Amino acid sequence: MKYISTRGQAPELSFEEAMLTGLARDGGLYVPAEIPQMSHDDIAALSGLSYEETTFRVMRPFLGDCFTDDEFRDIIAKAYAGFDHAAQAPLKQLAPNHFLLELFHGPTLAFKDFAMQLIGQLFQSALARRGERVTIVGATSGDTGSAAIEAFKGLSNVDVFILYPHGRVSEVQRRQMSTPAEANVHALALDGDFDECQARVKDMFNDFDFRDGVKLAGVNSINIARVLAQVVYYFSSAVSLGAPHRKISFTVPTGNFGDIFAGYIAKQMGLPIDQLVVATNQNDILHRCLDGQGYYKGETIPSISPSMDIQVSSNFERALYFAYGRDSGAVAQLMDELASGGFDVSQGALQALSETYDSGRCSEAETLATIKAQLAASGDLLCPHGAIGVKVAGEHRNPAVPMVTLATAHPAKFPAAVKDACGIHPPLPTQMSDLYDRSERVTRIANDLTTLEEHIRKHISK
Ligand SMILES: *Cc1c(COP(=O)(O)O)cnc(C)c1O
């Protein structure tokens, strides 16, 4: 199994190399050269299996010969042991033929744990075999950083430094980054905003002396291993609802397009998915683009669903690559145009995108109203991101086809917005109820490349 870049100018890599590399050298994103197929019988055979066994069967073909079956089973068992629900990704019924896929039972209460916990173990296993160690540096507006710190803490071949904008993440998110006591994980509160955090991370990757000296690696949402780990819950939930014998639809609260792109891969593998609906908040570049208005950057407007506040959706490049018939030259040209503001999608590609994706947007007022209405209708408390999904799903669904809306975070991760919407302050789950009592360890740091690089050099394990 080989992985190729969406821009066509980087070397082909194995699964393990693509995972450890992250971004391709030509600036593109790695995609599988061929998408493995699961037959009707293969999918039917998933019925009744554990989440772990489903992960093994769905992901195995993507790994090639990078890990043995025993190694991979062991990695999966470790990755999903820390979830607080025996089904890891349980389904709940919201209304007739409308279901909520609860992806917030991992250690940091957001769906990013599914991929991050798995790649933490994959990294550790690969690096230990190679006798290497790496330094992971990432920027976060909240959820990715907490998931990464939780997934990599205590692993012996990895140091992790997460930059977040000082004073601009929620208290739950900050505490999830600052309370783990393991010496190999480091929360850095940067004096700047999220864009500046991202810019400094980019600067470090472009400083080749530093990059090679500390063996920099990235685990942001463009990492292909993260995308593939998310394919699994499309299969597990669809099979629970009767696939492959009937079609299932999905609605996905979307920001960087990683989660919904995993749904596209599931469909290409053979899962009978009817609709894949992209749900955006007021930062609706994806909805406008899928609606035929071109892909043009605007200003990011902060919202009550901060994990979906994006200007440019990094994984959308992968969707474009397939919509343009795997034409990497065309993708490279679009990305050049994006650097100077945006681009129009060709008629053919727009047609291909509209055969795969539907889309809708949800305003701040609609998000709050949906939290309140769902609580009254079924007693379920949604986080703002999940509420956007439920609202957009309601507008797009065909009542005859089961609709699964992805609940991407636990309401307790965004308590202020939930309280505003319905008056209830959602309590933290029991396994985390002492979060406010744990002691914090965080370094406040200047928005300055030299200061950051010195700090990292000094604190990596030798
Ligand atoms: C990251 C995130 C999203 C967006 O997912 P993408 O894969 O970036 O589209 C949605 N909701 C929550 C809670 C998230 O943390």
Automatic annotation (TrEMBL):
InterPro entries, per the entry: Ser/Thr_deHydtase_PyrdxlP-BS, Thr_synth_N, Thr_synth_N_sf, Thr_synthase-like, Threonine_Synthase, TrpB-like_PALP, TrpB-like_PALP_sf
Positions in coiled-coil regions: none
Domain Threonine synthase N-terminal, residue spans: 2-80
Keywords: Amino-acid biosynthesis, Lyase, Pyridoxal phosphate, Threonine biosynthesis
Cofactors (names): pyridoxal 5'-phosphate
Catalyzed reactions: O-phospho-L-homoserine + H2O = L-threonine + phosphate
Residue ranges constituting the Tryptophan synthase beta chain-like PALP domain according to the UniProt record: 101-321
Listed Pfam families: PALP (PF00291), THR4_C (PF24857), Thr_synth_N (PF14821)
GO molecular function: pyridoxal phosphate binding; threonine synthase activity
Gene3D superfamilies xrefs: 3.40.50.1100, Threonine synthase, N-terminal domain (3.90.1380.10)
Enzyme Commission code: 4.2.3.1
Family: Belongs to the threonine synthase family.
Protein name per UniProt: Threonine synthase
Organism: Parasedimentitalea psychrophila
